[in-house]
Amino acid sequence: MEVLLIGAGKVGANLAEELIDAGEDVIIIEQNPEILQNLDHLDCTKIEGMPIDIDVLESAGIRSVDAVACVSDNENMNVMAGQLIKNIYDKEKVIVKIENPANESMYQAMGLQTVCTTSMIIGAVLQNLDYVISSDITSVLGHPIKYDLRQLTEAWEGVTVNTLEHELGVHLLAVVKGNKIALVGRDYTLSANESVIVVSLPEVEKAD
Length: 208
Description:
alpha/beta, five-stranded antiparallel beta sheet
């Protein structure tokens, strides 16, 4: 697979190294020459230039690449480059790194696949606190749908499903106890030794 990376900062450089080690062909576009000089150890094609310049993209072989990952430190640049590549070259797999989770659904509606570093950090911290065990976001009709498996804390002991849904702005799909999954009604009383599978719309979910 041939992968074009936009940006060669810490994320781009480490991603390039992983892809090269996996046997993929990597092309990097980076506008900062000093950053490129630090990548001499990487066995890949490196191009200095603006990623929103058509001539630069053409020189990188944009027409033949299989996937594009816009992972610079500038969210606006990532989105502009991603949109340009998506619209002009009709690439199916265009991934953009963003910082603001509030923009995620808008970019996904443009056909861009997003990776939000802020959401990832929050999710990792909550997971390490044993609050969110796992999380996944899918897209339905261009809108992001978020699924969470959450471990209930003592604060939710004795609370009904109806109350939890109202407080968190989510819809409870099932209750998990041990290795068993159960469908329950909205009047079901929750226990702190249970986990719950909930679904929500990220842009309207209330703060926990």
